[in-house]
Design goal:
Blueprint lengths: L1 E14 L2 E6 L2 E7 L6 H13 L3 E2 L5 E3 L1 H4 L2 E6 L21 H19 L4 E2 L6 E16 L5
Parallel strand pairs: 3-6, 6-7
Antiparallel strand pairs: 1-2, 1-3, 1-8, 4-5
Helix pairs in contact: 1-3
Protein name: D-aminoacyl-tRNA deacylase
Family: Belongs to the DTD family.
Keywords: Cytoplasm, Hydrolase, RNA-binding, tRNA-binding
């Protein structure tokens, strides 16, 4: 699994012109799933995400997690994170998991993050044409790959 985590002051996702989910201060996360992913990847990433110390403390040092600041999470599935651009100019998405694998893993990631943060999170709709808006606070953007833990 690959995630792109952005610290935001606000973010929302629209589908067909209607707001599906909206958050204030927190994390807007793009999630890419590949066929080799499983519950272990979800468990590792969700713990890392909610405990990632990227929010400022009283000395304006990035030393607090989304849990500590009472922030929110917006999780959006994005298969294009697994794009291969090695050959030609048209990206290949062969590494991205097909829906029969990725949808259940996306849903498990939602429930795991909700359990970790102790409240519901915002989500998009898997496979939908979504318009995501955010105000990146910092800017702070972190990329993590569950296959690259060392």
């Amino acid at each position: 699994m690959i995630v792109v985590i952005q610290r935001v002051s606000e973010s929302f996702v629209k589908i067909d012109g209607k707001v599906k989910a909206q958050i204030g201060v927190g994390l807007m996360i793009l999630l890419g799933i590949e066929e080799a992913d499983g519950q272990d990847d979800i468990d590792w990433l969700s713990k890392k995400i909610v405990n990632l110390r990227i929010f400022p403390d009283e000395n304006d040092v990035m030393n607090r997690s989304v849990l500590e600041v009472g922030g929110e999470i917006l999780l959006i599935s994005q298969f294009t994170l697994h794009a291969s651009t090695k050959k030609g100019n048209r990206p290949s998405y062969i590494r991205a998991a097909k829906p029969d694998i990725s949808v259940p893993l996306y849903e498990k990631m939602i429930t795991t993050l909700e359990a970790e943060i102790g409240k519901p999170i915002g989500t998009g709709v898997f496979g939908a044409d979504m318009k995501v808006s955010l105000i990146n606070d910092g800017p702070v953007t972190i990329v993590m790959d569950s296959k690259n833990r060392v």
